[in-house]
Amino acid sequence: MKSDISKLSKLFKAMVNNYHIFGGVWKNIELGKQAFVLMKRLPQTLEGEFDTPADKASLLSQMLEQMNELSTPRFCIEVREYIRSLNPDDEENLQALAMLNDYINPAITMEEFCVKYKRHLKFDPVERSLKWEEVIYRVEKECDEILKNEIQRMGFCFVYWSTKEKVLAKYGIRWKSPSIMNPGVIFD
Predict the structure, then answer these.
(1) Could you report the per-residue pLDDT of 55-114, keeping only the tens digit for each?
(2) 10 Å Cβ neighbour count for 6?
(3) What is the domain partition of the chain in residue ranges?
């Protein structure tokens, strides 16, 4: 059990570091999945680590704060369901869980989702798909490798989006960038 705690500590530290690096949040997809496997193996309480199930749930919530939950909504729903089993009264978790379920619900249009959750930028609905979620880590990793020597300054988002569109196409996904989805918005 001590080795699991040590691994978790390293994973959580890496996730915090990735979160604070521009463009590094995608790396937390796999780290979060590894951490969640370890967290589920641990008991609901563990002296010196988490004294109550709610404390364990809080650690998982902190983990999710280091991720873009809309990149992997189904995984994050699984984590949030587990959090709910540990701490059913956590209102923030329940709200986030409802939002994620709405996000993947094909009966709710992208426009309806944006209005309901006060999202100002439209997104390509393909981003809500299971296929997207299954490949997004690999896509981001490939984009990172392709763009590793690019300076991230004004205009970088267009280079990134163009690269991402091409890499997604290799996986059979046609994607429209934020600039295409939001024609009246000026991006740098």
Answers:
(1) 999 999 999 999 999 999 999 999 999 999 999 999 999 999 999 999 999 999 999 999
(2) 10
(3) 2-104, 125-181
